[in-house]
Amino acid sequence: MLIVDSKDCENIDKALKKYKKKYEKSKTLLQLRERQTFTKPSVKRRNQILKAIYKQKISSGKIEL
């Protein structure tokens, strides 16, 4: 549960903006989407390896964005 402390003089829009930022940083929506479908552990591991290879190529300069 997210709690946003707001002062009495603070606008409701600012408090809502703070709540949205906290919600985004907590990655709740990402976890929910991830749990909707089952992915095999081997597929997860393969995706991690491919991401690592891609990041390594970018850092070494072989791929330019």
Automatic annotation (TrEMBL):
Domain of life: Bacteria
Gene Ontology MF terms: structural constituent of ribosome
GO BP annotations, alphabetical order: translation
Pfam families given in the database record: Ribosomal_S21
Keyword terms of this UniProt record: Ribonucleoprotein, Ribosomal protein
InterPro entries: Ribosomal_bS21, Ribosomal_bS21_sf
One cellular-component annotation, GO: ribosome
NCBIfam families: S21p (TIGR00030)
Family named by the database record: Belongs to the bacterial ribosomal protein bS21 family.
Protein name per its UniProtKB record: Small ribosomal subunit protein bS21
Gene source species: Parafilimonas terrae
